[in-house]
Amino acid sequence: SFGRKAPNSAEAAVYEAPGRVVVRDIPKPVIAEDEILIQLVAASICGTDLRISRYGHFKLPSGQERVLGHEIVGIVAEVGSEVSGFEVGERVTATPNIGCGRCQFCRQGLNNMCPDYEAFGVTIDGGFEEFLRVPGFALQRGNVFKVRSLDYTLAARATGAGDWRIMLSHILPNCMAIIVIITAADMASLILTESI
Length: 196
Prior knowledge:
The protein is mainly β. Helix content is 13%, strand content 36%.
C-alpha cells in the first residue's frame, strides 16, 4: 500500500504488541495552538526502543498502540498560534523524557529522573513517523532544541543515551518502508523496501 497514501495520513512504525511493530499509514497529527509539528528527517533506534518492541513497557497498557522512537531530528513543519521561539523551517531535536515540572528532580533540572514523566515513543507517539506532534507541555518544559550546524543523523544520535545501533534516516513520504526485526541478541536489522 506504500505510495498510495490517503490524504492527511503519514507512514509510521507502530508498536502493536510485544514482538509486533508494523509500518502503516496513520492519521497525520493535528496540532493545537500551543504545539508544534516536526517533519522527521532522522531517528535513531536505541536499547529502549528494542526492549519496548520486544517486551512492551509498564507505561504502555496491554492493547495500547504507540509510535516508537525518541531520538529524533527534523524540521519544524507547523507552529501553533500561541507558540513563540520556533519558526517553520527550523531544524530541531527533542529530548525524550518530559518531567512533571513539580517534583524535586524536575526542580533540580533532572527531568530524566522524574517519577511521573511522559516520554516520546512511550506515553506520547514518538519519532518513527513522518510527522511528530510536540505537546505544549513539552515546549514549556524546554524539551525541543534548535539544531544549527550538526548533521541530521549525528543530531539524532546525540539525543539518546548512547545506546543507538542503527539509524532510521529520511522517513519521508513514499521513500521507504521500514520493518524492525528484533533478534535474540537484542540487535535490530532493517529491511528497507523502496516504495511502489
